[in-house]
């Protein structure tokens, strides 16, 4: 009954898939419908026109090839039909949908062209790769030089191997996986290692997957070279065109142009090309263009202004030109002629160049020096000289800003870079610079670049040696003073800032390269992990994948869910068990739990899984795992028959839930499992990951690129999505082709097709087309049949060896012959060698070689008897065949003949205790560790200890003696702590196997500032002490505050004095929020009430996160002013400040308001009383003694009386009454002026 239920479930899932209204599926079905109709029409036509072989043998040319006119008509009809299909697709779907499904016209062009898809995309960016010998030789020299420069002379790579790699890539259009596996002999030095090379060849030794890093490095350098070549070519054309267009200019210098073109030709890096481009644009700027031509915006620089008014001509009289100085520094040319000094002083010479813009000789000299300095700073040879010194000797220092000093504690991710002192640029090897850059962006660190004084002097000295005159006359000395100023300005004003910018860019590039490598390494480790294998080795190959019972814990909505997957990863059945991991609260809980246990027992018995995969999500999963084992143990005790089924040792293994969660929320999960709940999708992905990690990870590498959201590295957010996916693709391409794809099995199970896009020669477009074709055909029996499925010759060469053809999927039920060699990694081009080798072994062992099917029997023999291959002495056999240069190929063939498509991936390993702890707790090594400050909520207190819970859910224990330094004197800890208290403490130790944390909150321990990170050799925290000493010397401020991490337009990290000064220039009613001197739970709202009168309102913060110092720096979730509570500062401004200021302005504009001090207003009232002795005179004024209040002054008879009026958002508070209107307040005062007790 259960089996039938499973079948019904499976079939219903299939029916739902085709009835789904999912847009993506509707899209797929629409395309298949359109294409299917076209395919059917072609098949019908083919059937109608078909003839048997005898008829064809004697037919005339028209009968054989068809009537040319008829064929042209059919071709035109076919083209028109295809165009109609495209119009239908474009009318029915949005362009973005067509793009995501790779169904645009551009995608069709890529699909049809018989060139590897990735190469086509590559060349769209770089342009067509050169195929001539000279260009390839030139590029190989450049790549080899870059490799040696980056990795040192110990990097053993043969340049000839690089040449051959480029020839195979550019000319033959072969991709890296093919070259690495089938062209080893042609590029041995590019392989990281060669297990099949040398005398230690061992057929019994299992190969391992290898990341072909050197090949990818060369391909990356190939891309950089092609882009550099493309840019240089474009600049050659652009410079020449500009030069020809501007021949009318009188100041044109042809030799200068030729020099620029020569420098461009010699440029070997992007930086050097930038230098040449900068020099060209300086000397040949855009001028006014004739009407009707394209006009670019022209920014007037000081240099261009000087040139316009003839100052550049004067600058040329200072001596050697910038170009000559560059030649001298680079030793390209040595000038033997001494510099000839002018016979006039610089000031006298400057008089000749005075004009309206430059009226004074000193201004002329200053302009000329600027021109000369700019030209020096833009000279490529000079920049190359300075760059060499700067990049080798410049140093970087860091120090915290005031905010950073508070925020960056010993556990902060920026702690290791908080105090760096003069670290050389060349010493930055890891990802450290990215942290520095991020901290600088967040204004937590100050970063300084500095060239040591001796190197600075070296640059100035060597430049002076070639630039200054050796003359001793008065004129020579005066001109040399000007030249020194020019060099100082060029070096300090232009070159060094430019070098710092380049250094920052270089450090970022290096750090990102290292980070990408680390990111790829983590991904490689996960992808190259082998699937879970059964212990039973007697099962057939197709059933090698386990039947998996995958479980995901649920809090109730959704419920804890079990899904059953067959060995092909297809969903068979689902079980929801809400109460299985419940703790007993009452009898009803116990009954529900017992019912779920019985249901799970029956579920396991019916489906007989080989493995239980449990998602490690939280601490509840620990209890859930125990409950699953309890069910299994009960089954063994109650039903001994399950022992024979292997359930007695059914393993329950933890698995990481991060990837399944991505799948749960992805678009591909909605397409593959459209009617299933999210937790079911998650559980399916969990089980499939253990069955086939490569396919499951590949599933998330579709158009949405969900894989990029997988957290693999703590710093991966520093990488752009394109950078990450390029590395993902690199790893997936290498691994997929080493594992291979069983395409017959994949044709029956869609999710197994996911890695197809990474097969050599293919890509997402070609793979999707091939997949559709294979699914339509159902199965394939010979590799050569792939050509009938839209694969051209070049694609076939690239891909054939990695596509496994065996009796799986629908092919299982067929009796059609399948070549055993198609079930190996042996490439069809080497079938002849493999057949000859197998036949030689077979003949030697059986002495039979005359049978018609000897080759098939020989291959089957060596497959069944791999020991026969070990008898061969490979070197001797190769000599007998005159094939000594094919050792790698023959050793590879021998391995595949003995065990075709052996899995080279590492064996499946269960998570170790450390990994298990971090997965269950949801923490990482960076977020929890000994010495880490944490917040713990007290749950239960006894006399000797307190049981707590950390924010992450981990239980913690705080012992009495660890509570305070005088803990030994504490008799009962419950007198100090109560349930619900939040305690700030440190992690004393972690009991990972018990999922417990021991805590300590002694003041002596809390004061310790432990840093468990690796300390940089250039980290000097004594710099902090020097800063503190300087602070102590400086005048102390009246009140200090702790900087806050709050982002709001009205908030500033300033003192009370600074806030007062800030508001002094603002209008009355302006306000500012600042840190409070009362601590991190308070803020101060300061409002300008009147000139020199400022009211301070205390804001109390509530519901703050107290897990670390950074959390304390952030604003609380609630804000309280008096009895009013607000959610954030915006609400404070809207509900408190704005209405309060409205009432303030009402008071200041009231007819009875007087400006002045209390005594001054009293004098005014006495004068008014003298004029009207019978009246009670009164007025309102600002209270200077109590800022934020007003004072009501009045005279009834002779003496002034005073009462205070409070200012509130709701109005004015007078005599404990609130008035929203001043007229009403005045009327109330007049009626009750004689009431006693108010003054």
Automatic annotation (TrEMBL):
Transcription regulation recorded as keyword: yes
Similarity section: Belongs to the SPT6 family.
The species this protein was found in: Arabidopsis lyrata subsp. lyrata
Domain of life of the native organism: Eukaryota
Entries under PROSITE patterns matching the protein: S1 (PS50126)
One GO term (biological process): transcription elongation-coupled chromatin remodeling
Protein's recorded name: Transcription elongation factor spt6
GO cellular component terms listed in the entry, alphabetical order: transcription elongation factor complex
GO MF annotation terms: histone binding; nucleic acid binding; nucleosome binding
Role according to the record: Transcription elongation factor that enhances transcription elongation by RNA polymerase II (RNAPII).
Family annotation (Pfam families): HHH_7, HHH_9, SH2_2, YqgF
CDD domains: SH2_Cterm_SPT6_like (cd09928), SH2_Nterm_SPT6_like (cd09918)
Signal peptide start-end: none
Keywords linked to the UniProt accession: Nucleus, Transcription, Transcription regulation
Region spans: Disordered: 1-24
Taxonomic lineage: Eukaryota, Viridiplantae, Streptophyta, Embryophyta, Tracheophyta
Compartment list: Nucleus
Residue stretches making up the S1 motif domain: 931-1002
């Amino acid at each position: 009954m259960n089996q039938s239920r499973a079948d019904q479930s499976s079939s219903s899932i299939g029916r739902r898939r085709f009835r789904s209204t999912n847009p993506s599926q509707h899209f797929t079905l629409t395309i298949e419908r359109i294409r299917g109709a076209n395919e059917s029409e072609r098949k019908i036509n083919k059937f109608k026109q078909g003839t048997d072989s005898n008829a064809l043998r004697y037919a005339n040319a028209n009968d054989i090839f068809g009537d040319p006119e008829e064929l042209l008509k059919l071709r035109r009809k076919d083209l028109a039909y295809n165009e109609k299909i495209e119009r239908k697709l474009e009318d029915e779907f949005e362009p973005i949908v067509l793009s995501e499904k790779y169904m645009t016209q551009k995608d069709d062009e890529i699909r049809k062209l018989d060139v590897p898809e990735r190469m086509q995309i590559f060349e769209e960016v770089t342009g067509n790769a050169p195929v001539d010998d000279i260009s390839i030789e030139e590029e190989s020299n450049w790549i080899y030089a870059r490799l040696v420069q980056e990795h040192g002379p110990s990097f053993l790579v043969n340049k000839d191997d690089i040449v051959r790699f480029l020839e195979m890539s550019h000319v033959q259009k072969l991709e890296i996986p093919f070259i690495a596996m089938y062209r080893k002999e042609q590029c041995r030095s590019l392989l990281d290692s060669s297990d099949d090379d040398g005398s230690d060849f061992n057929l019994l030794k299992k190969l391992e997957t290898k990341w072909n890093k050197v090949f990818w490095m060369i391909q990356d350098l190939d891309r950089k070279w092609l882009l550099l070549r493309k840019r240089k070519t474009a600049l050659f054309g652009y410079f020449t065109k500009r030069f020809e267009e501007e021949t009318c200019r009188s100041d044109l210098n042809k030799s200068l142009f030729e020099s620029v073109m020569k420098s461009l030709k010699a440029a070997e890096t992007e930086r050097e090309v930038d230098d040449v481009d900068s020099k060209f644009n300086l000397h040949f700027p855009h001028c006014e263009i004739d009407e009707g031509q394209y006009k670019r915006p022209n920014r007037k620089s000081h240099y261009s202004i000087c040139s316009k008014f003839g100052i550049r001509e004067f600058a040329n009289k200072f001596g050697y030109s910038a170009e000559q100085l560059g030649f001298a520094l680079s030793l390209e040319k040595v000038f033997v002629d001494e510099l000839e000094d002018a016979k006039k002083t610089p000031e006298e010479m400057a008089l000749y160049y005075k004009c309206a813009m430059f009226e004074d000789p000193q201004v002329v000299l200053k302009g000329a020096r600027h021109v000369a300095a700019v030209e020096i700073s833009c000279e490529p040879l000079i920049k190359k000289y300075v760059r060499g010194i700067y990049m080798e000797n410049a140093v970087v220092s860091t120090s915290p800003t005031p905010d950073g000093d508070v925020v960056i504690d010993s556990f902060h991710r920026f702690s290791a870079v908080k105090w760096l002192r003069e670290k050389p640029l060349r010493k930055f090897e890891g990802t450290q610079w990215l942290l520095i850059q991020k901290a600088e962006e967040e204004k937590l660190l100050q970063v300084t670049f500095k060239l040591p004084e001796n190197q600075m002097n070296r640059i100035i000295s060597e430049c002076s040696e070639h630039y200054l005159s050796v003359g001793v006359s008065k004129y020579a000395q005066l001109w040399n003073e000007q030249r020194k100023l020019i060099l100082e300005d060029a070096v300090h004003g232009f070159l060094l800032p430019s070098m710092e910018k380049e250094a920052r860019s270089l450090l970022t590039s290096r750090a990102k390269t290292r980070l990408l490598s680390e990111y790829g390494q983590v991904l490689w480790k996960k992808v190259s992990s082998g699937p879970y294998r059964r212990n039973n080795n007697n099962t057939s190959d197709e059933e090698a994948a386990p039947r998996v019972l995958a479980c995901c814990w649920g809090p109730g909505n959704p419920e804890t869910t079990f899904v059953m997957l067959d060995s092909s990863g297809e969903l068979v059945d689902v079980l929801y068990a809400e109460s299985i991991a419940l703790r007993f609260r009452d009898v009803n809980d116990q009954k529900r739990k017992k019912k779920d246990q019985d249901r799970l027992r029956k579920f396991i018995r019916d489906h007989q899984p080989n493995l239980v995969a449990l998602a490690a999500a939280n601490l509840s999963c620990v209890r859930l795992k125990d409950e699953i084992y309890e069910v299994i143990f009960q089954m063994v005790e109650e039903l001994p028959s399950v022992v024979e089924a292997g359930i007695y040792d059914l393993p329950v293994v933890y698995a990481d839930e991060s990837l399944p969660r991505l799948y749960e929320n992805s678009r591909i999960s909605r397409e593959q499992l459209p009617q299933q709940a999210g937790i079911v999708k998650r559980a399916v992905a969990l089980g499939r990951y253990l069955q086939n990690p490569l396919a499951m990870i590949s599933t998330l590498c579709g158009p949405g690129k969900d894989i990029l959201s997988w957290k693999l590295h703590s710093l991966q957010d520093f990488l752009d999505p394109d950078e990450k996916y390029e590395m993902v693709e690199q790893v997936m391409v290498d691994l997929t082709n080493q594992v291979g794809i069983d395409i017959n099995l994949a044709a029956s199970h869609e999710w197994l097709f996911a890695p197809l896009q990474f097969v050599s020669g293919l890509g997402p477009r070609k793979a999707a087309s091939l997949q559709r074709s294979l699914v339509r055909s159902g199965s394939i029996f010979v590799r050569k049949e792939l050509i009938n499925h839209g694969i051209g010759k070049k694609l076939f060469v690239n891909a054939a060896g990695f596509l496994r053809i065996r009796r799986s999927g629908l092919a299982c039920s067929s009796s059609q012959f399948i070549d055993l060699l198609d079930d190996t990694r042996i490439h069809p081009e080497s079938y002849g060698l493999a057949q000859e080798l197998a036949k030689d072994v077979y003949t030697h062992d059986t002495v039979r070689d005359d049978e018609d099917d000897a080759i098939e029997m020989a291959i089957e023999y060596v497959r069944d008897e791999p020991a026969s291959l070990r008898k061969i002495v490979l070197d001797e056999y190769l000599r007998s065949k005159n094939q000594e240069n094919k050792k790698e190929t023959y050793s590879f063939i021998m391995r595949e003949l003995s065990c075709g498509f052996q899995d080279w991936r590492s064996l499946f390993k269960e998570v170790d205790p450390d990994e298990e702890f971090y997965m269950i707790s949801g923490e990482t090594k960076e977020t929890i560790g000994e010495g880490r400050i944490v917040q713990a909520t007290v749950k239960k207190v006894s006399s000797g200890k307190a049981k707590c819970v950390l924010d992450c859910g981990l239980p913690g224990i705080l012992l009495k003696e660890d509570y305070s330094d005088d803990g030994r004197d504490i008799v009962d800890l419950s007198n100090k702590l109560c349930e619900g208290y939040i305690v700030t403490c440190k992690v004393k130790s972690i009991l990972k196997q018990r999922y417990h944390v021991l805590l300590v909150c002694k003041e002596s321990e809390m004061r310790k500032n432990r840093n468990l990170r690796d300390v940089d050799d250039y980290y000097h925290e004594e710099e902090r002490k020097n800063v503190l000493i300087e602070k102590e010397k400086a005048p102390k401020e009246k009140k200090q505050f702790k900087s806050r991490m709050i982002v709001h337009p009205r908030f500033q990290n300033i003192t009370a004095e600074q806030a007062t000064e800030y508001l002094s220039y603002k209008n009355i009613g302006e306000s500012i929020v600042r840190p409070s001197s009362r601590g991190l739970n308070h803020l101060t709202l300061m409002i300008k009430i009147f000139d020199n009168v400022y009211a301070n309102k205390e804001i109390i913060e509530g519901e703050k996160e107290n897990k670390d110092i950074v959390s304390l720096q952030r604003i609380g979730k609630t804000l309280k002013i008096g009895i009013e509570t607000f959610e954030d500062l915006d609400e404070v401004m809207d509900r408190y400040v704005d209405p309060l200021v409205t009432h303030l302005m009402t008071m200041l504009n009231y007819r009875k308001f007087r400006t002045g001090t209390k005594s001054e207003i009293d004098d005014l009232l006495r004068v008014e009383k003298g004029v009207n002795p019978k009246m009670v005179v009164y007025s309102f004024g600002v209270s200077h003694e109590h800022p934020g209040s007003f004072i009501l002054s009045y005279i009834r008879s002779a003496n002034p009386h005073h009462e205070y009026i409070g200012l509130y958002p709701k109005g004015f508070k007078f005599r404990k009454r609130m008035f929203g209107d001043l007229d009403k307040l005045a009327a109330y005062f007049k009626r009750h002026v004689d009431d006693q007790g108010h003054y």
